[in-house]
Specification:
The chain is about 65% helix and about 15% strand. The protein is of the alpha+beta class. A hairpin with a 4-residue loop joins strand 2 and strand 3 (about 185-195).
Length: about 200
């Protein structure tokens, strides 16, 4: 009897601890492992992969390569460069010859139409008029320019009415500088810019 009383608590303890162990094992199995949130991370990296494979940078590189190729093709032979020079020279020469007629007729409004808007503003500025007035030819005669019309009649008409172009310097496909030789030295006549189908004085 004493032996049975002794074994009964032992059996009860054994039975009581068994479910706890089973529950503990079950709870451990139900707990999410550390690998579960890691498995979701590849989805977060997809936008990075898309950015790295966007076609736009490749397109830009192709465009830059095409521009470089065109720039390389523009390095034409000496004969071709001469043809381009002669063509532009003829255009500039015709423009200046027509401009000379306008200056000779002393038509300020038509001459003004040949100027770019930027150059019109420049010759109208007090700073420009003062600087020209301080030049030796005008200063020695006590002439002070007060408006752009003064610049046209006093400076442009006497000095540019019979000018001619002897050489041009092509800056780019739309800009050139025109020079003439007065016998002593080469002077710049105008800096021109092609706008549309005509030339405009920008300086």
């Amino acid at each position: 009897m004493n032996r049975l009383l002794f074994l009964l608590p032992v059996l009860l303890i054994a039975c009581g601890t068994q479910p706890k162990t089973a529950d503990g094992a079950l709870q451990a199995a139900d707990k999410p492992t550390a690998a579960e949130p890691i498995a979701e991370k590849p989805a977060d990296t997809e936008p990075v992969t898309e950015k790295q494979t966007e076609p736009e940078p490749a397109g830009n590189k192709q465009a830059e390569a095409a521009i470089a190729a065109v720039a390389g093709e523009s390095q034409n032979s000496g004969k071709r460069e001469e043809e381009v020079y002669e063509e532009v020279f003829s255009e500039v020469k015709a423009f200046i010859e027509n401009l000379n007629k306008i200056i000779q007729s002393k038509s300020y409004s038509r001459w003004r139409d040949a100027l770019s808007e930027e150059f019109r503003r420049e010759i109208s500025s007090p700073k420009f008029l003062t600087t020209v007035s301080q030049s030796p030819p005008l200063k020695s005669r006590g002439i002070v320019l007060k408006k752009p019309e003064d610049y046209f009649y006093i400076v442009v008409v006497p000095s540019r009415a019979n000018s001619h172009v002897d050489r041009i310097e092509i800056i780019d496909e739309n800009r050139v500088k025109a020079f003439y030789n007065n016998g002593d030295r080469e002077l710049r006549l105008y800096e021109l810019e092609r706008r549309g189908t005509s030339w405009t004085i920008i300086q």
